Fold each of these.
Amino acid sequence: MCTLEKRRNLFILTLTGDHDHRLNPSVIAALLEALSKVKSQASPGSVLVTTSHGKFFSNGFDLSWAHAAGSVSAAAERLHHMVQNFKPVIAELLSLPMPTIAAISGHAAAAGFMLALSHDYLLMRSDRGVLYMSEVDLGLSLPDYFAALFKSKIGSSSVRRDVLMRGMKVKGEAAVKMGIADSVYDGESGVMEAAVRLGEQLGARKWNGEPYAEIRKSLYPEISRLLGLPEKAISISKL
């Protein structure tokens, strides 16, 4: 499902396997456990890089698991369960006391797109992979914290309209032009090398993680309030 590796100051969180990394309760629980370990081991200079194996970064919630419940009502209940269980993953990433980088080497759709968007930096491939919100095509409504995250992270209302209400599939170079991704690179190895390089540059600053997390939350007050992330008073230690 996922692995966590520590390389000096870098934590590398990888969604493993050759499948599409659907976010079912087991995968969500594994992500939460990994993020808890990252937070507990954080120190000044720590950085998280999240990546994946295979064609997909993540293809969103596991709708097959939801439909396997049998009835429409039971499937809807399972989908609601995943929506609620995934909320703490977003909360953990937005409150993590370190810079975070999503190294997107494949497709990121729906909740998988949200997983990527919860990071501070998004790096994509130039040759493969799209960002895609499939809800409008599937006839699903948008969870409130998905909408709030989009408003917090993507400043252009026309970009939000095209992605959310037209179901636009956005490739790497277009994502940079639209202000969604930061940069693009050739191939899976190119994205990962760039992510590690950026992580090392950010880690070299040796920032105190707690103020870093509070600054992030202050940048995105709507989604932070919706996720129940409390504000903390930070003492000034370097003045």
Note: The first strand starts at residue 2 and ends at 7.
Amino acid sequence: MSGLISCDVPLAERYDLALVDLDGVAYKGHEPIEGAAEGLAGARALGMRLVFVTNNASREPESVAAQLTGLGIPAEPDDVMSAAQAAAGVLATRLAPGAKVLVIGGAGLVTAVRAAGFVVVTSADDEPAAVAQGFAPELGWTQLAEAAYAIERGAWHVASNLDLSLPTARGFAPGNGSLVGAVQAATGVVPDSAGKPAPTMYRLAVSRAGSERPLVVGDRLDTDLAGARAADYPGLHVLTGVNSGRDAVLAHPRERPDFLGADLGSLLVAHVAPTRSADGWWATRGAASRVVDGRLELHRTADGDGEWLDLCRTACAAAWAWVDEGHELASDSVPEFTVDNA
């Protein structure tokens, strides 16, 4: 069982490291997210270090850092932890330096695999010991077929991540998980995954930063926040990307966040968790929620810009407690939570 927790000081004061997702959190596609630069700058001013942890394995850390800097979020390559680096770390748990690895992916994955001491090959006929698969927009049938041939011959299949979709400026496109699924369907072999929700990247980033109090920040419950749970790190779900406040209310226990915020500005404020009264209402400030006969009920008692978010927090608390007690929650009783419907 898990629920929202309180923090009586800004999160950036309580936690010494933010493990920040990129797409949907710091930016969306090639566009900035309003308030992201200011929120991260404020967090740094309060002493919080930032490491950008991404399931994207196609790009070099230098490229990611340059994009962030161009969007007003100063970053160095060492501030980036990618799924490519995590995949190389997974390969190193089984393969000796000098082993051949067939890389199906972009420049970031090629660089990471080589940096780990492996020999990158491009054909199944090179008899690779493993296949490392990551997303790259230029990938096609020919590369996926080479991966399948190698895996059929006994190569170990390691995926940088299993994200089915990829957020872009135009919408959601097929992600690495969709391409991995094609190879898996052809071979019948289930790959190992290095990316979120596996905790590998988070733990590598925390170790590299020497952090004692890390906080995961993400927009996807099934990757960012599930990864936080898997690593046993607290997680902040921001509502600027894939998953909404309604999704949080309906989240599986292994995907629940510890904190809920509108955007990265939520790093700069204290968080008050809802508390339960004797009559079953979960309340905080001007909002309250409860579940009666499996249906969520909402109540607002005060006006304010943050009321819709507090209402969502109380809904999470009420719904999660109800489900954790072994009951079914009617999903059609859970609305979307936005400033417009507060």
Note: The first strand starts at residue 17 and ends at 20.
Amino acid sequence: MTTDTTEPSAAERSAALDALRGDRRRYGDTLFKGTATASGTGILLILAAVATFLTVLSFPAITSPAADLPYGAFWSWVFPYAAGTIWAAGLAMLFAVPVALGVALFITHYAPRRLAVSLGYIIDLLAAVPSVVFGLWGINVLAPMLQPAYVWLNTNFGDVWGLSWLFGGTVSGTGRTILTVALVLAVMVLPIITAVSREVFLQTPRLHEEASLALGATRWEMIRQAVLPFGTPGIVSACMLGLGRALGETMAVAMVLSPGNGFHTLLLTSSNPNSIAANIALQFPEAYGLARNQLIASGLVLFLITLIVNMGARAIVARRSEFSGAN
């Protein structure tokens, strides 16, 4: 009886190793695909669960007669809060977006490298500050500091035709107005918009920038011709992330704002429209029965507003999906 002691050839060993590596790669691909699929599905399930929760608990408040509701007829009650939410967030974006884009362009195209790195780090650090800290800063520093400016605006523009709907009325003596809240929210969303826009601007193809400069464009003209068109979808996405933060902000608004009843557009008065999130935070601890259902229903309205805003942003981005910096 003989035993075969022939060693496998180098080619056979190489083939065996290749087969083993291929099995490992296939296993890694399968694991990654499963993890990615589970993550995407999980997000959809969580979103559906939140929507279901809000809808079920909101149903009694939406369908009950106005006489049975603690806060009165639901739609007439929730409208001022919805309008106040959009008004405060819109003002915040009006202040934050130009500054954020300017800072992002300065970091990516104007600042020296060492300064750009330091400034980018500071911007990222600002995004980590808790909202309650912004609220304390707003109520103790910003509001008293701005109150004399509010008096000046009210005195000089309160009776001017076309501006009285913003600066008219009796000016607040504390500075805790919707304008102060908008400025606080602007500072809060500024790092989000800046950070995302900065990364988008850095992805602009270098050839596009160099071609624009080679044709005689100034640096600002190059930014208008190459950087901003390429980064428009990213800018829209950054603005929507910031707007989502502004729409849902709770503690800073609840701490700084001096809320009143109803909605108006005056920026400097002591009675201001409140937001949905801040009103829920203030009223929910003491609410019970249909009052809780009514507050949860207002949360559903805020959820729908955020969903509509993001759907609109996705539609804007999709219109420019055919543009590619690689083409």
Note: Residues 73-319 form a domain with the MetI-like fold fold (CATH 1.10.3720.10).
